[in-house]
Known about the structure:
About 35% of the residues lie in helices and about 15% in strands. The protein is of the alpha/beta class. A 7-stranded mixed sheet has the order 4-12-11-10-9-5-8, sandwiched between helices. Strands 1-2-3-15 form a 4-stranded mixed sheet. It has a 3-stranded antiparallel sheet with strand order 13-14-16, covered by helices on one side. Helix 2 (about 70-80) runs antiparallel to helix 10 and helix 6 (about 180-190) runs parallel beside helix 7 (about 215-225). The longest helix has 23 residues, at about 320-340.
Amino acid sequence: MRHTTSRDLYDRALSVLPGGVNSPVRASQPYPAFIERGDGSHVIDADGNRYIDFVAGYGPVLLGHDLPDQVIAAIQSQVSDGPMYGAPTEVEIELAEFIARHVPSIEMVRFVNSGTEATTAAVRLARGYTGRDKVVVMQGGYHGAQESTLVEGDRSEAVPSSPGIPAEFASQTVPVPFNDEAAIEQVFTEQGEDIAAVLTEPILGNRGIVMPQEGYHDTLRALTREHGALLIFDEVMSGFRVGGLGCAQSHFGIEPDLTTLAKVIGGGFPVGAVGGRAEIMESLTPSGDVFEAGTFSGHPVTMTAGLETLRYVAEENVYQHLADLGDEIRSGLVDIVADQAPDYTVTGIDSMFKVIFTRNGAGQEGVCSAGCRQDPDCTQSETCPTDASDVEAAATDRWERVFYHKMREEGVLLTPNQFESQFLTAAHTQEDIEETLEAYKAVL
């Protein structure tokens, strides 16, 4: 493959964009592939190279790059009526009604413009509603580029994970390890009266996909109720991708107090949302006193794209297709890893998957056939990642420096680092899966 045009574009970008990109996860060395267009389950870069695409916009692209005619027609019709008005529109009500109808924990929705805005608003709302300041988060979890959650450390000392964040912000955030019931119980024993919320992804989707152990979410739900705190599920990534129309919370059988959404509900356009019980949501301005606002919130083009995407998904049984493909690619990867890299771990659920380059694995005999499920009877359970630190201890450099680039040369586009999930779309085919598995086999 030739990459000279991408190289030249990156050289230009370095002069006008910090690091040559507009989000650090898009960076890769020596330079990223600059994408020119999408085509179904594929993307074509500026040099004309064609890749099977498992980045899928980091999650929002659920239907693939060729949208169904009815979705395109609705978007085009809305654009022809004018891009936006700074006034309410019916379509934002319709999308909110769709979400509330399918996600049992959600009665009301406030639309914003990104996942970061959604989690920022959810934290502010939880603090305003409870009158408390502290927020518990999972170590290695990601909730956007906001001051309250860009922290590292543990429950005894949290510090900012980025320059530019005052230490006072981090002092109100309590990081605990994912899946560690003893740690979260101790935090509530020591600080329960000060905790406004526990904010967690249902699965750690920005650390190679770490599944919850059985009963962990039930413990979070019980502790927050007992101590008068809110449970916030960050479903920016998993919402309407894991667990079907009910989202990941339905899959795990948990009803949080608040839910953050983004990615899929915008149909590929910028979006975010906070949803939850009406009693809590009505604390937001103008019905309540917790301030939240945005010029582009409820943007009619985005609302139209999201609504028509979700309607199509509901009508065409897209989730079964995605689940079948997900099981097939994860099962194939389990077999390949067993033969070629038994220390590694295959993870994922529904339309998400990842191979984590874990070290000192127990081998693959008797493992979960379609990816790690945190099964205590699995031979790999002692070495399967249970929190973010287990993934961070993996051979992450091997992914970034060698594996990612070799897969690109095989015509498969993955995320450039070990931590981000891979995503399937409705446009992926049996042939795509078979070709991808052959690429993994060749490169591993």
